[in-house]
Design goal:
207 residues; alpha+beta; 5-stranded antiparallel sheet; 6 helices
Length: 207
């Protein structure tokens, strides 16, 4: 019995390791050169420099310690190895732990990430699968109903989409793909839906 338990525990650890996914690059949502903490007497911030960032791959929200000044929207390397602007990855954050500034900038930063990775997100429209017999992953995007879903599927069967512009030309009346995807990502970060298309290591689309 003890041997079985040890073996099971090792297997569970290995499974967790396989699910670990690290961000390589992230975008700055907020930079606080004097930290979070405010001296109640002086009203000044007295903490250490800190920044809140969002990962480019799985949209992981992170708190980091910078070793240089950062600008909002700046893309920084947060992966393993020598980082030029980030000293430490402190922890993962939930949406509710973001500063007011980070929350306000989040939709715009996410749009920037989507625009900068157009090929990756166009591929979503080319390969997006059904989730159940009654629900397709395309329908999880705001502004896409059954009509647009079937038009996208029929068009991609004829020829894969090459760009957001190509997508909008071939699927008439389709809302802006960048804004649709960005809105969905922000909703997923707020846990508004149990299905995750783009956020987290269990996300449906891993383009």
């Amino acid at each position: 019995m003890d041997r079985y338990r040890r073996h099971s525990y090792r297997e569970s650890l290995e499974k967790k390791r396989r699910n670990v996914e690290y961000e390589e690059y992230a975008y700055v949502l907020d930079y606080l050169p004097e930290g979070y903490y405010v001296d109640l007497t002086s009203g000044r911030r007295t903490g250490k420099p800190v920044a809140q960032v969002i990962g480019e791959k799985a949209f992981t929200l992170l708190e980091v310690t910078p070793k240089a000044e950062l600008m909002l929207y700046e893309k920084v390397f947060v992966g393993k190895g020598n980082r030029d602007k980030i000293l430490l990855i402190n922890k993962k954050l939930s949406y509710d732990e973001l500063t007011d500034t980070a929350k306000a900038e989040l939709p715009y930063v996410v749009e920037e990430i989507v625009k900068n990775n157009e090929e990756r997100f166009v591929q979503f429209f080319n390969v997006a699968p059904p989730i159940t017999n009654r629900l397709h992953s395309l329908e999880l995007l705001p502004g896409i109903g059954k009509k647009h879903m079937w038009e996208i599927i029929e068009e991609r069967q004829r020829e894969p989409f090459k760009s957001f512009e190509d997508l909008r030309k071939r699927v008439k009346g389709l809302p802006d793909p960048v804004k649709m995807i960005a809105k969905r990502i922000v909703d997923e970060l707020q846990d508004k839906d149990r299905y995750k298309l783009f956020v987290g290591h269990r996300r449906i689309f891993r383009g």
